[in-house]
Amino acid sequence: MTRPSFRFPDGFHWGAATSAYQIEGSPLADGAGPSIWQRFAHTPGMMANGDTGDIACDHYRRYKDDVQLMKALGLRGYRFSISWARVLPEGTGRVNPKGLDFYSRLVDQLLENGIAPNATLFHWDLPAALDDRGGWLNRDSAHWFAEYAEVMFKALDDRVPRWSTLNEPWVVTDGGYLHGALAPGHRNKFEAPIAGHNLMRASGAGIQAYRAHGRHEIGVVFNIEPKYPYSDRAEDLAATRRAHAYMNLQFADPALLGSYPPELREIFGEAWPDFPEEDLELTNQKVDFVGINYYTRAVVKHDANAYPLQAVSVRQPNRTHTETGWEVFEQGLTDTLTWFKQRYGDIPLYITENGSAFYDPPVAENDALDDPLRTDYLRKHLKALHRAIEAGVNLKGYYAWSLMDNLEWSLGFSKRFGLYHVDFATQKRTPKASAKLYARVIESNGGVLDT
Ligand code: BGC
């Protein structure tokens, strides 16, 4: 028998991902404190169509059914995030046992169904009480995070084999502190580098806490978007270098190399502080793996008016773009993984998010929902992943974003990334064609991609 060319290594970890505020709903139930996303979503004008996470996918109440959706796909792993303010309503100090209990029940449910939990401690929903104390601008945030992390490790590390400290610190600083499109909605060039630095100190402090209290694996999740120059003119090459340093190196370098790239000073100018050396020792903790979220690439051109990078992304003609305007570019996934290994060494890697928002037609009467563009995206990216493995990347697993349609942050429910369609009026879940393909991929360990 000839071996199908797209079969993945034995034991490859197939999963799907979500995050707390995007799916749970009931954000204030059972004694939870408000998060910055609760506040932001309830501030007029911040969210598309005035959408909020008040109900979202109602996962807080339907988690058992949702675990059955995962089981139907054959998932080996499920990546979710923990809402810090459910567990510590004031962010530090008093633990809310009911909040903790929700995650404990979810984890048990996953394990009973043969699905390995992968818990992210911070996927953007900072407790509002901590924002009142300065949020990520306060240097104490590293200690707050370590305190919270320790509570979680003590409660769940006996059952959770894989943890991440942060999800996508770049998005927190760029969206939350520089451009203001995401919570907490600040627009301040002087704040963004500080918030980013404290996030990475927090991640380091969380990893240190894990070494004291945990016995499995911990890592950190970055969104990596490879940057390609628009032309070989010197100014476009320099713009590409800046864009890459800003989005990709600003967080991975302090975590994995203990340094910052020099371009950050070029970009931020007087707003880039001299961070103390010992901080970079804290950020640079040994990780057991790195999670990479990959969605698209950027083709970068110099533009003196673009703040603060002096660089813009140029939309590529004659290419497929998703509903979030992102070019479908699967080669970028292979390139990202091989580049990451080259720069940071042979760290075990997971793709912790990858997926696409496309318009979905209404669910048909026979419960069918054809999503050819999403299916095509999935197929292409899984093949690109396979090519990275063949090129020697130590890739352990893949989590599709997302298990189901959910609240796409300030874009509300208008953008659907799910393998399962969610009817937000009835909460009915329906597998899309992409979900069916993914189930066959998992069952055949990639073999079905040959056909
Ligand atoms: C985030 C998700 C988000 C997805 C699609 C990632 O930046 O981690 O929460 O829904 O991309 O935009």
UniProtKB/TrEMBL annotation:
Which InterPro entries has this protein been placed in? GH, GH_1_N_CS, Glyco_hydro_1, Glyco_hydro_1_beta-glucosidase
For the keyword Hydrolase, the answer is: yes
List the PROSITE patterns hit by this protein, alphabetically. GLYCOSYL_HYDROL_F1_2
Q: Which domain of life is it from?
A: Bacteria
Q: What keyword terms does UniProt attach to this protein?
A: Carbohydrate metabolism, Cellulose degradation, Glycosidase, Hydrolase, Polysaccharide degradation
Enzyme Commission numbers on file? 3.2.1.21
| A molecular-function term among this protein's GO annotations | beta-glucosidase activity
Show the Gene3D superfamilies listed in the entry.
Answer: Glycosidases
Question: Which residue ranges run through the membrane?
Answer: none
Q: Which family does it belong to?
A: Belongs to the glycosyl hydrolase 1 family.
Protein's name in the database: Beta-glucosidase
State the organism of origin: Rhodanobacter umsongensis
Lineage, opening ranks:
Bacteria, Pseudomonadati, Pseudomonadota, Gammaproteobacteria, Lysobacterales
